[in-house]
């Protein structure tokens, strides 16, 4: 695997009170993994795990942490990839999407057809992508998400939605990008990624 062909498990919850994954465990697992080398940290409504994880990963030239957050908006969960700050409140889909645009982050509708997902309402918002493969969603819910992304002509991302170490890397997206945050975000926006489950 080279830097132009990095796989990544997106959206690992690594630090918040709802997660049992320590930043060091995630970094160690990325460093050891044969092809998943990029992870997005998206705790619920918190960015406090991001900086520590980014710093822990810094000594490793072949892994990358994308700082982010999963915001519980008034209409459902939205992931913001590429931020170490929280969007300003109130957390409506519009304010979160506008915040993402203002800082060149990527906004993704998380697990649209599961609890706390926004379902078909996603069509109303100017998001960058739809999470089409969520490690904690049913196949039916993921298939509906895929259909939604297709009909909106938006890229589809993958997220393990891991809350414990055993759930990490259950799914990932193969991305054509260089190993830096801006390059990965750009590739997601362009749709240069393939969401897939991680075998073995
Ligand atoms: Zn969620």
In short:
This protein is of the alpha/beta class and 200 residues long. Helix content is 26%, strand content 25%.
Question: Could you characterize what this model shows?
Answer:
- The protein has 200 residues and is α/β, with parallel strands linked by helices.
- It has one domain: Metal-dependent hydrolases (TIM Barrel), CATH 3.20.20.
- It is 26% helix and 25% strand.
- The protein contains 5 helices and 9 strands, in the order E-H-E-H-E-E-H-E-E-H-E-E-H-E.
- The strands form 2 sheets. The chain has a 6-stranded mixed beta sheet. It has a 3-stranded antiparallel beta sheet with strand order 1-8-9.
- A hairpin with a 2-residue loop joins strand 3 (64-73) and strand 4 (76-81).
- Helix 1 (23-32) packs parallel to helix 2 (50-57).
- The longest helix is centred in the last third of the chain and has 14 residues, at 139-152.
- The radius of gyration is 15 Å and the shape is globular.
- Residues 1-12 have low confidence and may be disordered.
- It binds zinc ion.
- Zinc ion binds next to loops.
Q: Helicity level, as a percent range?
A: 25-40%
Shape: globular
Parts with pLDDT < 50 across at least 5 consecutive residues: 1-12
Pattern of helices and strands = EHEHEEHEEHEEHE
The CATH architecture designation is Alpha-Beta Barrel
Question: What are the key terms here?
Answer:
single chain; 200 residues; alpha/beta; TIM Barrel; 5 helices; globular; binds zinc ion
């Amino acid at each position: 695997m080279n830097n132009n062909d990095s796989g990544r498990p997106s959206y690992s919850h690594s630090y918040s009170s709802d997660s049992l994954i320590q930043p060091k465990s995630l970094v160690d697992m990325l460093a050891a993994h044969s092809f998943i080398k990029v992870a997005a940290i998206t705790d619920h409504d918190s960015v406090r795990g991001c900086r520590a994880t980014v710093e822990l990963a810094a000594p490793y030239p072949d892994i990358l942490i994308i700082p982010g957050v999963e915001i519980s908006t008034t209409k459902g969960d939205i992931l913001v990839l590429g931020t170490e700050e929280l969007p300003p409140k109130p957390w409506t889909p519009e304010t979160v999407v506008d915040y993402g645009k203002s800082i060149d982050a990527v906004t993704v509708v998380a697990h649209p057809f599961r609890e706390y997902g926004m379902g078909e309402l996603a069509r109303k918002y100017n998001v960058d992508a739809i999470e089409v493969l969520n490690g904690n969603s049913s196949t039916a819910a993921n298939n509906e998400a895929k259909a939604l992304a297709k009909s909106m002509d938006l890229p589809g991302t993958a997220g393990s939605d891991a809350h414990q170490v055993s759930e990490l890397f259950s799914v990932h997206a193969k991305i054509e990008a260089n190993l830096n945050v801006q390059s990965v975000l750009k590739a997601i926006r362009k749709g240069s990624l393939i969401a897939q489950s991680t075998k073995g």
